[in-house]
Design goal:
CATH class: Alpha Beta
Strand order of the largest sheet: 3-2-1-4-5-6-7
CATH topology: Rossmann fold
CATH architecture: 3-Layer(aba) Sandwich
Shape: globular
Distance between the termini: 40 Å
Order of helices and strands: EHEHEHEHEHEHHHE
CATH superfamily: NAD(P)-binding Rossmann-like Domain
């Protein structure tokens, strides 16, 4: 057996939410390159991701679900498990952001972000673990946190609150499930080229300020996050529980 097998996902089936673009797409492709089959979940077309995954010689299953509805999301996971077979890993990547000054932040913008980024994430974790534990299997959960799990940021009140929550929920679930065969960890991406950061990248002053603080001197790529996710899904990270890995070009180190 090669030492590289510790980083292989061959024979594993991994569900990735928000797999149509950006970080979710990068995670899906990295999983495929490691040999894992991908179940992509979202409410928009995932044809591009499907093609990229299948090019790596593994199957892609697209599942449409409105992740703003936590009950629908939980039901979706149970239906996929029943219809396609056991799932070995869950990557909670789907997330949204709303920007406004805290003094004028709207209740709807608070609720929309918290529902997707934290509430649905928790109940998907619950539905996944329920199936894993009932079947006596082992499972991996990777939650996508943020550098704003550690910092305040500006003009993103609900996003910051939700990502602080992801950090806490990841730790709590690890405490409850580590001894039961479910590894729960998280990744805190820094500033990555995605739809969520488009407004920042299009603002010359903000973009220059962000790049000036990143020791690596560049924005992250979705594959940077994807490769870290593979590590947390693979046997190599078997003794990791409740950890949040910053993949941020050194942002938090400065």
């Amino acid at each position: 057996m090669s030492d590289l097998s510790a980083f292989s996902l061959t024979g594993k089936r991994i569900m990735v939410t928000g797999a149509n673009t950006g970080i979710g797409q990068g995670i899906a492709v990295s999983i495929a390159r490691a040999g894992g089959a991908v179940i992509g979940v979202g409410r928009s077309a995932m044809d591009e991701t499907a093609g990229m995954v299948e090019t790596e010689g593994v199957p892609f299953t697209g599942v449409y679900c409105d992740l703003r509805d936590h009950a629908a999301a939980s039901a979706m996971l149970r239906e996929v498990w029943a219809g396609y077979g056991p799932i070995d890993g869950l990557v909670n990547n789907a997330g949204i952001i709303r920007r406004a000054d805290a003094a004028a932040f709207a209740e709807k913008d608070w609720d929309d972000v918290m529902d997707v980024n934290l509430k649905t994430l928790f109940f998907l974790c619950q539905a996944f673990a329920e199936r894993v534990l009932d079947a006596g299997r082992q499972g991996r959960i990777v939650n996508i946190a943020s550098v704003l799990s550690f910092q305040g940021g500006i003009r993103v009140a609900s996003y910051t609150a939700s990502k602080h929550g992801v950090l806490g929920i990841t730790r709590l679930l690890a405490c409850e499930w580590a001894a039961k065969g479910v590894n729960v960890n998280a990744i805190a991406p820094g500033y990555v080229v995605t739809n969520n950061t488009e407004a920042l990248r299009n603002d010359p002053d903000r973009s220059a300020a962000i790049l000036g603080r990143i020791p690596a001197g560049r924005w992250g790529a979705p594959s940077d996050i994807g490769d870290a996710a593979v590590f947390l899904l693979a046997p190599a990270s078997g003794y990791m529980h409740g950890s949040t890995i910053a993949v941020d070009g050194g942002w938090l180190a400065r």
